[in-house]
Amino acid sequence: MRRRTFLGSGVAVLAVSAVPWRRLYAAQDVPAVSRTGAAITLPASDIADLRARLRGGLLLASDAGFDAARRIWNGYFDRRPALIAHCAGAADVRHAIEFAASHDLLVSVRGGGHSISGQSVCEGGLMISLAGMRSIRVDPESRTARVEPGVLLGEFDREAQAFGLVTPAGTVSHTGVAGLTLGGGFGRLARKFGLACDNLLSADLVTADGRLVRASATEHPDLYWALRGGGGNFGVVTSFEFRLHPSPPVLLGGPLVFPFAQAKSVLRAYADYSMTAGDDVYADAMIMTLPDGQRALMLDTCYGGPIEDGEKALGTLRRFGKPMQDAIAPTPYVVLQTLSDQALAPGRRYYLKAGFVREIPRDMGDGVVEEFASLPPTVIAIFASAGGAISRVSPTATAFWHRPARWNVVAATVWDNRADDEGNIAAGRRAYKTMEPWVKGFYVNDANLAEQSQANVDSNYGGNHPRLVKVKTQYDPRNLFHLNANVVPAAGIEPATP
Question: pTM for the whole thing?
Answer without folding.
Answer: 0.92
